[in-house]
Design brief:
This protein is an alpha/beta fold. The chain has eight helices and 14 strands. It has helices spanning about 10-20, 85-95, 110-125, 155-165, 170-185, 235-250, 270-285, 315-320; strands at about 25-30, 35-40, 50-55, 75-80, 100-105, 130-135, 185-195, 210-215, 225-230, 255-260, 290-295, 305-315, 325, 330.
Length: about 325
């Protein structure tokens, strides 16, 4: 494995040091916990605090979305591992201004357990914490058990909706409702063409044979729906788009937001090739694309692959999506 690393076991600490140096006008390390990234001006007086967190290796998620109009603090875990409860708690303590804290995170067992523990500890400190989990990965569970689905790249829209509502002065319950509405109207699916390598392991954590692809692969390499022969970009984009549209089961043309995120090793050139077909399909069915995001928004180390996310919009979600925001990974 050839990588830009010092000690592979310390790569997260090295990353955080460089990240704060690069974006010191926006974020800083918590004085409570060196695995918490927070806004330099947190807590913001009179505003509900927004916390997220998760394993490293998905950059720019999660720390990249700490900034104005989005997330106030992020708990940072080891590569593909949940941050401990103490890190979530310290993030909550750093952002609370007396209006309560909304914790918006992906639906994974470790994160669920640690957030719930942190919320209980925060309550002992007099802080009201409520949470929403992203469940946009349609491959991870069928529609009848949507609540079991994992959160992948579509979590960005949960952070954007909740962060915007908080920036507008919304109450904790209003922030939670807006974030949940984004989750309820977001679907994603991934396709993997090649594995990723955890630095401390030094070898690929799964295998996709040459000439094949894994449809529905998870962000950590979780098995997908099926392994099939590699298709053309148009064939792959069509299958991904149709899978999401089937899951939505729209009753007519909708206004939507669309995101194509590379998983770490996919060139932007290929993302735009895929997006061209996605847009053709959506427009051909009468859907209106309100906003488009193409780039590396939520990755998986050096995995060769892509995630497609579609969000059904109404006037409220459009307003939240369009609300100004600025963080290292996204500027409106």
């Amino acid at each position: 494995m050839q990588r830009f690393v010092n000690n592979p076991d310390l790569i997260v600490d090295d990353m955080l040091r460089g990240y704060v140096d690069a974006h010191g006008d926006t974020v800083k390390l918590s004085s409570r916990n060196e695995r918490v990234i927070q806004r330099v001006d947190a807590p913001v007086a009179g505003k509900v605090g927004i916390v997220t967190g998760g394993g490293s290796g998905h950059e720019p998620a999660f720390l990249g979305y700490v900034g104005q109009g989005l997330v106030d603090a992020a708990a940072v875990g080891e590569v593909f591992a949940s941050p401990p409860a103490q890190s979530f708690l310290d993030a909550m303590l750093e952002v609370d201004s007396g209006q309560g804290v909304a914790c918006l995170f992906g639906n994974y067992a470790g994160d669920n357990m640690n957030v719930k523990m942190a919320a209980e500890l925060a309550e002992d400190e007099g802080i009201t914490v409520k949470y929403v989990t992203a469940t946009d990965d349609i491959a991870s569970s069928p529609p009848e058990t949507r609540e079991k689905r994992h959160g992948i790249a579509g979590g960005l829209f949960m952070w954007k909706a909740g962060g915007a509502r908080a920036a507008m002065g919304g109450s904790l319950d209003e922030v939670i409702a807006s974030a949940q509405k984004a989750v309820d109207n977001t679907r994603s699916i991934c396709v993997g063409l090649g594995s990723c390598t955890i630095p401390a392991v030094g070898s690929p954590n799964f295998t996709i044979e040459e000439g094949q692809m894994e449809f529905g692969i998870g962000h950590h390499g979780e098995p997908g729906i099926r392994v099939v022969q590699l298709g053309t970009a148009d064939q792959i984009a069509t299958e991904m788009t149709e899978a999401i549209l089937r899951d939505f089961n729209f009753d007519g043309p909708q206004e939507v937001a669309v995101m194509l995120s590379g998983l770490g090793a996919t060139p932007p050139m290929e993302l735009y090739v895929l997006y061209g077909k996605v847009a053709d399909i959506l427009k051909g069915q009468g859907h209106q694309i309100h906003r488009t995001f193409v780039g590396n928004y939520v990755t998986s180390l050096d995995m060769n692959g892509v995630s497609l996310t579609i969000v059904r919009l109404d006037q409220e979600l459009k307003e939240l999506l369009n609300h100004p925001g600025e963080c290292p990974a996204l500027t409106y």
